[in-house]
From TrEMBL:
Cofactor(s) needed: pyridoxal 5'-phosphate; [4Fe-4S] cluster
Keyword Hydrolase tagged: no
Transmembrane regions listed in the UniProt entry: none
Catalytic reaction(s) noted: L-lysine = D-beta-lysine
Gene expressing this chain: epmB
The protein, known as: L-lysine 2,3-aminomutase
Keyword terms of this UniProt record: 4Fe-4S, Iron, Iron-sulfur, Isomerase, Metal-binding, Pyridoxal phosphate, S-adenosyl-L-methionine
Domain Radical SAM core per the UniProt entry, residue ranges: 124-348
Organism annotation: Steroidobacter gossypii
UniProt xrefs under InterPro entries: Aldolase_TIM (IPR013785), EpmB (IPR022462), Lys_aminomutase/Glu_NH3_mut (IPR003739), rSAM (IPR007197), rSAM_sf (IPR058240)
CDD domains: Radical_SAM
UniProt cross-references to PROSITE patterns, sorted A to Z: RADICAL_SAM
Stated family: Belongs to the radical SAM superfamily. KamA family.
Amino acid sequence: MIAATLHADQLIPQFDATSLDSPAQTVPHEPGWQQLLADAVTDPRELCTLLELDPDLVLPAIAAAKDFALRVPRSYVARMRKRDPNDPLLLQVLPIAAELQVTEGFVSDPVGDMNRRAAQGLLHKYQGRALLVATGACAVHCRYCFRRHFPYAEESALQQGWQPALEHLRADPTISEVILSGGDPWSLSDRRLKQLTDGLQSIPHIRRLRIHTRYPIVLPERVDLGLLEWLHGVPLQKVVVIHANHAREIDEAVRQACRRLTGAGVTLLNQGVLLAGINDSVAALVELSEALFETHVLPYYLHVLDKVQGAAHFDLPEARALELHRELTARLPGYLVPKLVREVAGAPSKTAVVGAVD
Ligand SMILES: *Cc1c(COP(=O)(O)O)cnc(C)c1O
Ligand code: SF4
């Protein structure tokens, strides 16, 4: 197994994917990522059965999933421990009763993104960078996501064939980096992605393409030859910011996907969210940084939770977040310490968490 893996990986960088009619030809018996995506677990009953969990979890899960559906790829479920209701991967995706509680200060659009629309699906909040909502779809539904109440499907730039977004980008020479976000931009087909990057490439002041995606973590099969071929063909500097919150999310398939991305000339960064019950210990955060680095990914941001309705049970007191971050700083080389940040509506950048400002 290991030898075969190494062999396949070594082939990737010099592999001429353009000689293939279809990437599927190389792995004729394995389902493609779209199939795996369609096959994700969406029924709380099934998730509880697969993991041999207490059936009492099912009804609350069904109730909470009405608001924001359960969705989790099977290969991610396979990384969870059976019979463990506190598994750090499970807690990220299982709907629970606490989501239905209304908590003061937790709102539906905590980031205030709606006010920063520069064109259909384009948010221009920070100097030099514009964020393009490429699609509303994600491979996984993370229960703490600040987008859980957001009408992203209607907001995506694809809706109008990218044109209004591309026109805004073309007209503003101060923008040098375009960030594809969502939703998850890699939910789009390679063909759609290429349409977009063909448009971006024709704008001389765009130098960098950044992609915010959870696919390499939750459905690493997405990083297939078609995707690599597309990336190889984009002449911009490429940064992919993945989203892992726990070292146990990173298995051999994830490492392989990351190696392929690095092989395609991509710089890999990680952004995580500090989540009560999931990664709120120094040990968990140290392990995460180390596991990322073994995979050639540098920790970039550790976000404190956006105060979105239904996610209050993941929140930590700010003093605890700071204490964890200070200990992390003491324990790790500087390059393995992510910046602890929060999103402040109207601020010119992500805001470092430095003391009590609440
Ligand atoms: C987070 C974010 C960015 C990127 O910020 P960086 O600090 O460059 O990572 C850009 N635009 C928007 C709207 C964002 O929310
Ligand atoms: S993948 Fe990202 S955008 Fe999608 S639900 Fe998870 S955190 Fe939210």
